[in-house]
Write a structure and sequence with these properties.
Helices cover 28% and strands 20% of the residues. The chain is an alpha/beta fold. The structure holds flavin-adenine dinucleotide.
């Protein structure tokens, strides 16, 4: 095992959270930051072209591709949980839909005893992170302009079937909204997406890339963190593996675990943070008894509805070789057309 140098902050995971933290913590230049990522670079074409979602959904090179244990509530079936394993993490493989939680959700968190998490507290940060096309329309207190993450308004470019869908919602008496992230957040709508000039905008493109020129930020890819190292009950470093070689980096100030909702609790448990009895049963010496770690996970199930349409869908229009060629040319020349479109914006 080789001992590496000491950093002020060590961040595990270069996903949505890790990229933002790497940017913000290194911004002043006063602190040294080490960012460890188990996956590799995000240069691949299908990580850039929004339609690439379908190509990365089952690609083990960029995706942890987890499967749950058989679930009694799903009649014994096991669920598929994709998670990004690449710079940008899940933001490099996600559906790019930009939708914030409802104000009530945040106020509920604050009411549960979490000061600083109410809607009025988080709204300034939501505004600061985005450079939204919608901010032109909503010169109110809801949307932001000039932030690192570009949010595209694609209403003018959607497939005609989307308009039929909106109309069907109206005929059913459902509310509709022009901006799901505005004052009226409930209703049938066209999604806003995190793209910039027809390319995917991820936490990596928006936050990490601009920060990588700083000399006080060090990024190591293909670095799998195995455990947080403790000095008593203080997290003092991280043990990780690169190319089969084991290393330990020391943290003067903090270790920030940003491995995502599946890997973060797993890494904590491997480090001795979790339910003490459960850890002992697995042969792990407990460092800190925290019974909630690895429990209370909530996920939202997704399922698709398929219908036969009278109007030609994108698959029919572009499914042929000539259609694919035309779609490819439109994308390369103008960053327009179905290749620039995300899965949730047919
Ligand atoms: C297929 C898919 C579609 C989605 N669609 C949308 C959408 O349309 N809109 C939306 O708002 N959200 C969507 N999400 C959710 C959203 O992308 C995530 O909530 C968000 O990216 C999570 O951020 P995170 O920082 O917690 O984790 P992640 O972004 O997953 O980052 C975790 C990072 O840590 C790394 N890592 C993990 N363990 C280790 C370790 N031991 N050592 C080193 N590195 C490690 C991982 O490789 C990864 O890069 C989607 C997610 C997926 C997977």
């Amino acid at each position: 095992m080789t001992a590496m140098q000491t950093f002020d902050f060590i961040i595990v995971g270069a996903g949505s959270a890790g990229c933002v933290l790497a940017n913000r913590l290194s911004a002043s230049g006063a602190h040294s930051v080490l960012l460890l990522e188990a996956g590799g670079a995000d240069h691949h074409f299908w990580l850039k072209a929004p339609i690439g979602y379908g190509m990365t959904f089952y690609n083990p090179k960029v995706n942890w591709m987890y499967r749950t244990e058989p679930d009694a509530a799903l009649a014994g079936r096991s669920g598929y949980w994709p998670r990004g394993r690449v710079l940008g993490g899940s933001s490099s493989i996600n559906g790019m839909v930009f939708v914030r939680g409802q104000p009530q959700d945040f106020d509920d968190w604050a009411a549960c005893g979490n000061p600083g998490w109410g809607w009025a507290d988080v709204l300034p940060y939501f505004k600061r992170l985005e450079d939204s096309d919608m901010a032109r329309e909503h010169a109110d207190d809801w949307r932001g302009q000039g932030g690192p993450l570009h949010v595209s308004d694609v209403r003018a470019h959607v497939h005609p079937l989307c308009r039929d869908f909106l109309q069907a919602g109206a005929e059913l008496g459902l509310p509709s909204t022009d901006d799901i992230n505005g004052p009226q957040w409930e209703g049938v709508t066209i999604n806003q997406i995190t793209t910039r000039k027809g390319l995917r905008e991820s936490a990596s493109t928006a936050y990490l890339r601009p920060a990588l020129k700083r000399t006080n930020l060090r990024l190591i890819t293909h670095a799998l963190a195995e455990r947080v190292v403790f000095d008593g009950q203080r997290a003092s470093g991280v043990q990780f593996v690169v190319d089969g070689q084991r290393h330990v980096a020391q943290a003067r100030r903090e270790v920030l675990v940003c491995g995502g909702s599946v890997n973060s609790p797993a890494l904590l448990q491997l480090s001795g943070v979790g339910d003490a009895e459960f850890l002992r049963g697995k042969g792990i010496a407990p460092v800190h008894h925290a019974p909630s770690v690895g429990r209370h996970m909530q996920d939202h199930l997704c399922h698709d509805h398929s219908y036969v349409a009278r109007k030609p869908s994108l698959n029919q229009t572009y499914g042929t070789w000539s259609g694919k060629l035309w779609a490819g040319l439109r994308y390369v020349l103008a960053r327009r057309g179905p290749t620039s479109s995300c899965i949730s914006r047919p």
